[in-house]
Specification:
CATH superfamily of the largest domain: Type I PLP-dependent aspartate aminotransferase-like (Major domain)
Helix content: 25-40%
Number of strands: 15
Largest sheet: 7 strands, mixed
Order of helices and strands: HEHHEHEHEEEHEHEEEHHHEEHEEEHH
CATH class of the largest domain: Alpha Beta
Structural class: alpha/beta
Distance between the termini: 39 Å
Number of domains: 2
Radius of gyration: 20 Å
């Protein structure tokens, strides 16, 4: 590496497996490697996108912080889920997708050498952004059990210390589907207050829960309301991956710094996409739309779990993916990924770099293949392993 900031930043694996899958151009290949989905975005978003092509104001850098209708819609949605109000002019800024928002928030809150608490395993893109910002990841292990993934609230809170600048959490988490709740927020509130730490909440999948319950938002806890920075995105819940629009919502003082980072980093979000995202977020049927998509993803997840019942898979509580523990099979995740690809026409990503325990897990994305294609997955696994 030519610069030290890249020395401890590995790739994420998804790009390599995805590029190899694209290169085959084989329709028989099961695409379980990448967080795409074949479920269409909301109709109102498609209509607004087409209209934006003829709107000169949509072909502009300005306003850099995002169009006001987008900020108003995003602030209203976060406020509704958090049970408090946010000013779209001072407490919300648009960003070019959720991960751009995460990096901007980290750059605005983390000094080089500061610790950032994360749960292991976790998306490599979040870990790498902590490192890119100069932070030091501090991992709290999640436990895989018969009921899915869990993390002890007190152990999570105990990881917050004098060197902690922020706690970076996602719920449901990628790639595990781990869901956090009020017990975690209660434990973290005192710890974050004691050590003056921020809670950066990646809310990209917060409504994609398989228990039918609404999101548990950390800012709804009185002790975290002034410490929570919420990063949202249209990519997952609204299925608007290619639009590249997200938002950051939080206290005005830190939002001013995040806005400044945004001006210095990606500058602005996609102009042609903002009205579409605002329309989708503001639509009265948005919750029903997300619920319908979640029901289909849950059906696909259930199909994968049924097909792979004889293998060490861990059921997720939400999200778009689940993990298979390759250690009991006597294989590394990279070995199993290679076998599945070349012997059974299945693309799935090994979790190397996705936290300290990642290398033992293979990620299976169930969001982009219909149930009739997922049927027979067990036979493909037998072809790859036997």
């Amino acid at each position: 590496m030519t610069v030290t900031r890249l020395r401890h930043i590995p790739g994420i694996g998804v790009d390599a497996v995805g590029n190899a899958a694209d290169a085959t151009a084989d329709p028989a290949l099961l695409r379980l490697e990448n967080l795409d989905t074949d479920l269409r975005p909301p109709g109102v978003a498609l209509t607004a996108t087409r209209a934006a092509i003829d709107d000169d104001a949509a072909n502009s850098y300005l306003p850099f912080e995002g169009h006001r209708p987008l900020r108003a819609a995003a602030a209203a949605r976060v406020g509704r889920l958090a049970g408090r109000s946010y000013d779209p002019d001072t407490e919300c800024v648009g960003v070019a997708g959720g991960l751009n928002g995460v990096l901007n928030a980290l750059l605005a809150t983390v000094e080089p050498g500061d610790e950032v608490v994360l749960v292991d395993p976790i998306y490599a893109g979040l870990v790498n952004r902590v490192r890119l910002a100069g932070g030091v990841p501090r991992f709290v292990p999640a436990r895989a059990g018969a009921a899915g993934w869990s993390v002890d609230p007190e152990r999570l809170a105990a990881a917050v210390g004098p060197a902690t600048a922020a706690v970076l959490l996602m719920s449901p988490a990628m790639p595990t589907g781990l869901v956090l709740d009020e017990s975690h927020w209660s434990a973290l509130a005192a710890a974050c207050d004691r050590h003056d730490a921020w809670l950066i909440y990646d809310a990209a999948m917060e409504s994609i829960r398989f228990d039918g319950r609404p999101p548990s938002h950390p800012a709804s806890h009185d002790g975290l309301a002034e410490r929570t920075i919420t990063v949202g995105s249209a990519s997952k819940e609204l299925r608007m991956i290619g639009w590249r629009v997200g938002w950051v919502v939080g206290p005005a003082a830190v939002l001013a710094d995040i806005r400044l980072v945004g001006l210095t980093n990606v500058v602005c979000q996609v102009g042609l996409a903002q009205a579409a995202v605002a329309a989708a977020l503001s639509d009265p049927g948005v919750d029903d739309d997300i619920a319908a998509a979640t029901a289909e993803w849950h059906r696909r997840c259930t199909t994968v779990l049924r097909e792979l019942a004889g293998y060490p898979v861990i059921a997720p509580h939400g999200g778009w993916s689940l993990l298979l523990d390759t250690a009991p099979l006597g294989l590394s995740a990279a070995d199993l990924s290679h076998r599945l690809f070349h012997r059974a026409k299945v693309a799935a990503t090994p979790m190397d770099g996705w936290g300290p325990s990642g290398s033992r897990y293979l990620r299976i994305v169930f969001a982009n293949e219909p149930v009739d294609r997922l049927d027979g997955l067990a036979e493909r696994f037998r072809e790859a392993i036997d």
